[in-house]
């Protein structure tokens, strides 16, 4: 319970049902595309489908403006999972793609299994 509360305050990602990412995300999923897992922070989120990584970036004060970014698995160059240490309360997944120098970074609550799941799905999908 405390971990969920702290995650909500710090913005750490947790696993959710894909529908919770919103209507715009649902509209972006193609016929025949399967969402393997979805994750959300306070406002933003991302999903791993059988074809791509989809980022949901809510913008503005109300979060009504939404940007969807699709990264095909073939564009991912590398990724890493940093597990939390003794005093760390989070785990961090970083993804580097062909488009930029800086990695995309996702912070997860430690011990929930969401970071390991996202890492496993990326491993399976990037491998081909």
From TrEMBL:
InterPro entries: PHb, PHb_sf. Residues 7-113 form the Bacterial Pleckstrin homology domain. This is PH domain-containing protein. It comes from Pararoseomonas baculiformis.
């Amino acid at each position: 319970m405390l971990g969920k509360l702290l995650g909500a305050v710090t913005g750490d990602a947790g696993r959710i049902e894909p529908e919770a990412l919103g209507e715009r995300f649902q509209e972006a999923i193609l016929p025949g595309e399967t969402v393997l897992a979805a994750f959300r922070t306070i406002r933003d989120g991302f999903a791993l489908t059988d074809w791509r990584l989809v980022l949901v970036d809510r913008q503005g004060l109300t979060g009504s403006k939404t940007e969807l970014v699709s990264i095909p698995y073939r564009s991912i160059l590398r990724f890493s999972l940093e597990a939390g240490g003794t005093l760390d309360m989070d785990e961090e997944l970083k993804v580097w793609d062909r488009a930029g120098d800086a990695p995309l970074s996702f912070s997860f609550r430690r011990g929930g299994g969401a970071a390991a799941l996202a890492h496993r799905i990326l491993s399976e999908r990037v491998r081909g």
